[in-house]
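Recall from the previous chapter that SMILES is a line notation for molecules. Here it describes flavin-adenine dinucleotide.
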Amino acid sequence: MTKAAVIGAGIGGIAASIRLAVKGFDVTVFEANETFGGKMQEFWLGKYRFDAGPSLFTMPHLVDELFTLAGRNPSDYFTYTRLDPITHYFWADGSHVKAYANGDKFAAEVNQQLGVPEQAVMDALAKSAQLYKGTADTFLHKSLHRLDTYINPDVLKALSCLSDLGLTTTMHQENAKQFSDHRFVQLLDRFATYNGSDPYQAPGTLNIIPHLEHNIGAFYPDGGIYAIAASLVKLAEELGVTFKYNEAVKQILTSGKSVTGLETSQAKYKADVVVSNMDVVPTYRRLLPNQKAPEKTLQQPRSSSALIFYWGIKRTFPELHVHNIFFSQDYKTEFEHIFKHKSISPDPTVYINITSKADPQEAPAGSENWFVMVNVPHNQGQDWEQLTADTRQAVLQKLNKMLKTDIAPLIEEERVLDPILIESKTSSFGGALYGSSSNNRMAAFLRHPNFSNKLKGLYFCGGSVHPGGGIPLCLLSAKIVGELAPAVHHVVNTPKHA
Ligand SMILES: Cc1cc2nc3c(=O)[nH]c(=O)nc-3n(C[C@H](O)[C@H](O)[C@H](O)COP(=O)(O)OP(=O)(O)OC[C@H]3O[C@@H](n4cnc5c(N)ncnc54)[C@H](O)[C@@H]3O)c2cc1C
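With both inputs in hand, we obtain:
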């Protein structure tokens, strides 16, 4: 049987293993850690359950698609509920907005709370949908790095809205052009952080992101985000995929211009196809030391990382929901701290995810599991101990004021995750959450392709390569790999007497 080896059991690697198994490959996934999931881990602190990494789940059909592809009924493995409201937004001036799932209701709320005309909100959501529909087939669903992508009717669709693509303006410029209320602009600008970018630098094209959350929806998986990885590993194993844990890959083996397999901490394995779900920078630096690395691609600026405080809070806050945002007062300065000064603003925007709002069993009665996150630069040798201590203080001060409660005495469990830990746990270069940032208009084209144009049989998936980071894009990267990988021709044993 034709063998495929996948390096890493992050969500992209798991999805790629399923697609290759369905295609007929004999697939083995090698994972350095003791379990699957990569950034998508879960843990308990006392009686509080936490998803360690991703918290927002959009485009669930991309998960369902994997079960359907394998001839299974998705709901036998994985179920989820649409969130409504999606997010509670809070500003220092005391205003707040509930982002309802229904567009009309959301527009009415924005009008009531911020005075923004309802029709303008609806128009912004419609424009986001139009941008998505015009561009997704070209920019997200296919390799951007193959000629046949461009000889395709979908490209004509993308070209027809080229003037509206926002490639020459920033997200912020586009949003500020449409709205005068700085709070609503901030709400829309925030979507740049969904791929670790800066709205003051990222192209207006990224204004497709609100469509995913507001028009398609935000969802909570039963069992938490971790259930996505767990249910897909169950499927992969049923399809015959082998997972080898605690087995880090040390080198990708090659002969001439083809891959021949890989070498792990324990043995050498032959493979016709190798898929790296490891961050593309260490894939070249550590696993392919004798190959010429694509320096321009590897040196693209990294996306932001995260500083997270997981807090078990012994009280409930009825004014909070699953996703909550407490905005900074000066968004531009906050992003300058992250991307220019490589530091953290003393007044950071604070995101709190509380999954016990969706599933009360995830915290003790009368308590809540707070995942408190601040966007920070990737690790470039900063003093994280000091930055963490300062930021913890700033976050507490901000929440005390905006929630009119002294938070520190309510924290009965605590753990911290910083960029150094993210890097050491997953090999993501600098602990960046989404590979390279999208802080320039060519960023989409400068991401590493999903295949190697130097080594036959070598493919790439996951957040550091095309089309980008975040659960949906990692799943799409695996889909592209599945489509690019060669067809498997099995030798059919015909009965002797036939
Ligand atoms: C704090 C945080 C918050 C986030 N929030 C969101 C969110 O709300 N919504 C969203 O959609 N996304 C979010 N993301 C991003 C999302 O989690 C990632 O884009 C996605 O999970 C990355 O998946 P991946 O396939 O790239 O693999 P990764 O998760 O990066 O996993 C790679 C795997 O490869 C393994 N590996 C590395 N090197 C080797 C080797 N040499 N040999 C064997 N195995 C190796 C690693 O151990 C790891 O398990 C967040 C991420 C973090 C960290």
